[in-house]
Each structure stands twice: as C-alpha cells, then as structure tokens.
UniProtKB/TrEMBL annotation:
GO MF terms, alphabetically ordered: DNA binding
Organism (species): Acinetobacter boissieri
Protein name according to UniProt: Two component transcriptional regulator, LuxR family
Superkingdom classification of source: Bacteria
Domain Response regulatory stretches: 2-119
GO process annotations (BP): phosphorelay signal transduction system; regulation of DNA-templated transcription
Keywords from the named record: DNA-binding, Phosphoprotein
CDD domains, per database record: LuxR_C_like, REC_NarL-like
Membrane-spanning parts: none
Pfam family of the protein (one): Response_reg
Lineage: Bacteria, Pseudomonadati, Pseudomonadota, Gammaproteobacteria, Moraxellales
Domain HTH luxR-type: 145-210
UniProt KW Nucleus keyword: no
Length: 216
C-alpha cells in the first residue's frame, strides 16, 4: 500500500508515520506539507492508494482542499486527520467526501483500524460518533459552494487560494511562474464559476468552507 501524508507539521508527520508503520510495516509512505506539494505529487501520476489529510493546511481554506481533490481524483480515498474533534466538523468532512476521520488524539490502534477499513472500501468514524450521523449537516450555501469549487481546474484552485491569501495578480504570476495575463484569465474564470464579481466576494464566498463548529 502507498500512503500520502499531507500535514504541515513535521513532528506530527513523523509521529503519524510511526503510527502507520506500527500497523502496516511494509507500507510505502510519501509526505507533503502544503497544498502545492500535495497537487505536485498527484499530478506527477503517482496516485497514492490512500491520503491522510490535515484540514489546517497552507494553501487551503478549510474544507476546500478536501472538496477539490475529491472532485479531481475521485478514486483516491481520503482520511482526514485533524486536531478538530467537534462532531459537526467530523460530519462536514464526511459530507464533503472524506471516507474516514481520525482525531489527532487517537491512539495508533485506531489509526490502523481506520486505514484498514478505508482501504477495504468502508467508511470509518471515531467510535463515539454513529456512522449514520454525517448526513444533512452542511448548509445549502456550503453545498452549493462546494459544487462550484469542484468545477475549478487545479490551477484555478491554486489561484483562488492565493487570492484568498491576499496576493496580487503579479505576485501570483511570479509564484506560479506564468504571465500576469494568464492569472487575469484564471481570475475571470474563477469569478464566473463562483458567481461573484470581485476578489472580496470570492473570499467571502469560500468562507462558508472554513472550519468552525456549527451548532446544529
């Protein structure tokens, strides 16, 4: 099995690697610390059998990376590994396409159990959360925005996340090594797909995917 761990904290990545190897000694493990590295790995053609994904990731906004990657690579199962343990956040992650959710406080046995279940095509949730409770937790606005995020190309998604960070077109063009005209074209396409008129509206639109405990 080939597993990709996506988390920006080196110490936690190391701890997670050890926990995974405890249950699966022969597994091949790759690492990514940012959304940029995550997509670079996926676009290299080396699709993993399983992804362990942190929600608080540089280059992403809340659930946006989960939503977009699930749309672009629907065959790759994703388990969210997060410090957030609120039930509503776990439910939202599952609604947005995660096949499992592991709290970062979980012991190695639970991590192995989750990986085994998801690799066999099953869903896995923390023992204290009934499996049927992850439905109908997202608002209509969040569901609609998720569908629009899914329609973005990988490059448009990168540009949107950089817009959300407050970068100007010139800065984005430099970072992505393309022309400013190309970025302007991407931004125009993004606005159209998100049904917004400007950067402020775009940032406000994607804020519905932010991680916050929505009391139901």
């Amino acid at each position: 099995m080939n597993i990709l761990i996506v988390d920006d904290h080196p110490l936690f990545r190391h701890a997670l690697i050890q926990a995974v190897r405890q249950g699966f000694p022969l597994v091949q493990i790759k690492e990514a610390a940012t959304v940029k590295e995550f997509y670079a790995y996926l676009e290299s053609g080396a699709e993993p059998d399983l992804v362990l994904l942190d929600l608080n990731l540089p280059g992403a906004s809340g659930f946006s990376a989960l939503v977009h990657v699930r749309a672009q690579y629907p065959s790759i199962p994703i388990i969210v590994v997060s410090a957030h343990e609120e039930v509503s956040i776990i439910q939202r992650a599952m609604t947005h396409g995660a096949m499992g959710y592991i709290p970062k406080s979980a012991n190695p046995d639970l991590i192995s159990e989750a990986i085994q279940a998801v690799s066999e095509g099953d869903l896995w949730l923390p023992p204290n959360l009934p499996h049927h409770n992850h439905v109908e937790v997202c608002t209509a606005d969040e569901t609609a925005l998720a569908a629009r995020i899914q329609s973005l190309t990988p490059q448009q998604f990168r540009v949107l996340m950089m817009v959300a960070e407050g970068l100007l077109n010139k800065q984005i063009a430099y970072d992505l090594d393309v022309s400013e005209a190309t970025i302007k074209a991407h931004v125009t396409a993004i606005f159209r797909k998100l049904n917004v008129q400007n950067r402020t509206q775009a940032v406000l639109a994607i804020s519905v995917l932010n991680i916050q405990d929505k009391k139901m």
